[in-house]
Structures are given as structure tokens and as C-alpha cells.
Model the fold of this input.
Amino acid sequence: MKFRCDGTPRSIRSAAPGAAPFGLESRSGRAVRLSFRFLCWFAFAACVRAGSAPAPARTDGLELESPGTFHFNLLPKAFSANPTLEMTVFTEFTEYGRTLPDASPGNPVYYVSHSKGFQSKGLPVGGEQPPPAPEIEQLLQQALMDRGYIPAEGSNHPPALALFYFWGTHAGVAVNDDFTNGYFPELRRQFIIEHAALVGGPAYAHRVAERLTFGAGPQDHTTKQDYLFYQADHDLYFVVVSAYAYEDVAQNKHRLAWRTTMTVNSAGVSLKETLPPLIVTAANYLGRPTDEAVALQRKVRPGSVSLGPLQVIEDNVTLPPPPRTK
Done:
């Protein structure tokens, strides 16, 4: 039932004889009535969910829960003991990077690294407590080592690459911010495109810009594309690792070999608790070219890097659990 500004319903039904008018109902009576309605609605929804016919078999090989609004979850992440994180990872190689040998534990590539620390992008976000820089450095070093990238320091091998990395937050205009979205739509558009660049690189940012300009087409509504756009449309935590030719950096030049960007949806979770699982989960894609953004989901236990099975959206691949990180 809809209400006018004065609080009276647009259509008032006749009250039973002796009953209080709708607008004068006691607080306790109204609370009981609303509680009863909620229980009836919840029971009805549960019956519909339980009695529904099984969904037809997927044609794309997916048997996964989808992120954000794509799965039914009454418990917000902030109140979940094991929240599901929506993550993406994307690695883009340059022409120069494609000429380099692929790193592997049996064919290691040596590097030096430099941290550019925590960075806040987009709108300012207060109260964030990033993980300590040494913790990020240790996690990245272990992830890179698993891929075959070894620190040159103390190895007696000259470095081939110089890695620069940073992490942080990127907050845009909230979906339900009617004022900003109404009066400054270009600001929201800018932030979505910036998020898209973190999710899938310049090519995906261009695709999102076209979608915002001309509208979404049928090709934009696959399971994975809906996932990626949902990620770009919401606030993110991120980690970026860029690899340059060491010999050029030593001469104050910058020849990019590859760049890996990792993101996690920040709704209901903290930066400190989600960056370690993000790095561990994305480790297999560090410095490894991906044709497009890889969409990942994983349950985590806050306060530790205790991870559930990794779900790769669209690829239907489950990777082995990563080694435990103390």
C-alpha cells in the first residue's frame, strides 16, 4: 500500500466494527501485524524457492553462485562468518612483454621491486585501515615466487624486470545516490569507467564506455559480462603490479612488459581483511597473460587467509587451494 506525504494511505479500507481506524492503530498492534506479514512473505518465498522446478542445465558449463545481486542471500557480508568475495584479475602484456620468456619455477625470471604504497582513488573513503606494507610485500613476493618470479637481491642473478606495485581503494558515486546521479551523471560515468579499467584494462573500459553511451546489447548480458559490469559499477579495493624492463628503468626510461590488476568488491568487507585473500587467489595469474578479465569468487574467513574453493566464473575451473600463508 502506498502513502501520501501526510502518512495516510491512498486507499483506505473499511475497518471492522469497533476496530481503530488504520491511521490510529496502536503501535503494538501495528508491530504484530507487520511481523505477521513479514513471516507470511518469508514462508511464501521459501515455499516458492523449495517447490520450484529444477533449473535447466546450463549450456556454458557454469554451476556457480553469481555475485552481488545475482544470488539470493538474506545475510549481508558484514554479518557473515564466511563472506563470499567477488574478485577479478587481469594481466595485459605489451608487444615487448610478449617477446620475453614465460616465467616458471623451472625457468625463473629475476626482478627488483618498489612499493608505491597505499593509494586512494575516486571519492575519499574514511576509516579504512590498510594492511601493513610488509604484509603486502610478503604476500606478493610469495605469489610471484610461485609463478617463477624471484627477487634478484641475494640470488647472484641480474634482474631482468623492475616491478612497481601499489594497492588501495576506488570509491565512486553510490548507485542509490539520487542527488549526485541526477545532477552530476558525468561524475558517476567517469568512476564506472575508471573501475572498468581496473577490472579489465583499457579495452574493457572502452567497452563499458560504449555501453553507458549506447546502452547494453545482448552480448552484454551473459553471466560473466553481468558479473564484470557489476564489479565496475561498485566500489573496489585493488592491487596493481607493473613490470618494466630493468635496464630501461636504470636509465630513467619506462618500457612496460606487463601489468596485472586485481580487484575485489568492497561492499560489506574491509580493506585489511580482503587484500590478502585477493593476492593469494590471483597469484596464478600474476605476470601471465589473460585474454580478458578473469572473474573469481571465493569464501573467506575474516582475520585469516583461510580460503574456500576457488570458483572461476565462465571457465568452470577449480584451482587447487593455495599454500597456507602464516
In short: The mean pLDDT is 77. The helical segments are 27-51, 95-98, 133-147, 178-183, 185-214, 223-232, 246-249, 271-282.
